[in-house]
Amino acid sequence: MLPELLSALPLTLAIMFVALTAGFLVALLATALRVRRVPVISHLADLYVSYARSVPVVLQLFIAFYGLPVLGKLFGVPDLLSATGASMLGLSLYHGGYLSEVMRPAYLAVDRGQHEAADSLGYSFRQKMSRVIVPQALHIALPGYGNALIYMVHNVALVMYIGAADIMATSHLIMERDYNQYQFQTYLVLAVIYSIMCLITWSIVRFFEMRSPMYVPDSAPVKTPIMASA
Q: Do residues 155 and 91 make contact, with C-beta atoms less than 8 angstroms apart?
């Protein structure tokens, strides 16, 4: 069964890649609006983040696949959204809302003095963000972002419920074809595949975390201050 499962892996990875990329861009926009506190628009961004974090992911996929065509009919827009497209859209909106709650605390965690120091040096807003604030915020956000990536690996398995032919849907087709004789073996192979995907994701996040200028190794000795003798 392994070759058949791996044949569906490219579609699974494509859905995941598009959702991660689009979700990251949506999270950047939502975070910027929530931090700057633009009247009305920031409240809409807060409402979106609350929706993405409160509604189960599978229900968000149902809304994207079944709800958007109904909404499109009200405006005379034809239904052109396939199951794969709805999967990408639903997961992108979920990931964007979840990731915004990782980015916003990371940005706010940077000490206010860092902003003031950059302003006193005459940095422009772009220079301040790229040279001072963003590197520190990225280091703070990396663990939470790694968790968001792993959650995406898990949640992409839900796209089978709206008809996307991902690796999970392919496994069910294989089991039905074999009259459910090898359910345990199939699920075990799936568990190994998803575990490898999560391990690769964690390794990539760990790679960037260890190369951050703010990284402190776990084995680094703790320096204690030397007290002056009386």
A: yes
Residue 148, classified by CB atoms within 10 Å of its CB into exposed (0-12), middle (13-18) or buried (19+), is: buried
Q: Contact, 160 vs 166, CB < 8 A?
A: yes
**Residues ≥6 apart with Cβ < 8 Å to 1:** 171, 174, 182, 185, 186, 189
Nearest-angstrom CA–CA distance, 133 and 155: 31
227: left (phi over 0), alpha (psi -120 to 50) or beta: beta
Residue 73, CA distances (Å) to 61, 67, 70, 82, 222 in order: 19, 10, 5, 16, 64
In tens, the pLDDT along 47-89 reads 999 999 899 999 999 999 998 888 877 877 777 788 899 999 9
Contact of 215 with 209, CB cutoff 8 Å: yes
**Please, which residues have CB within 8 angstroms of residue 97's CB and are 6 or more apart in sequence?**
26, 27, 30, 48, 49, 50, 51, 52, 53
pLDDT tens digits, one per residue of 11-52:
999 999 999 999 999 999 998 888 887 788 889 999 999 999
Q: How far apart are CA 199 and CA 11, in angstroms?
A: 19
**Total count of residues recorded for the chain:** 230
Report, at the CATH architecture level, how domain 2-210 is classified. Answer: Orthogonal Bundle (1.10)
Say what the pTM is.
0.84
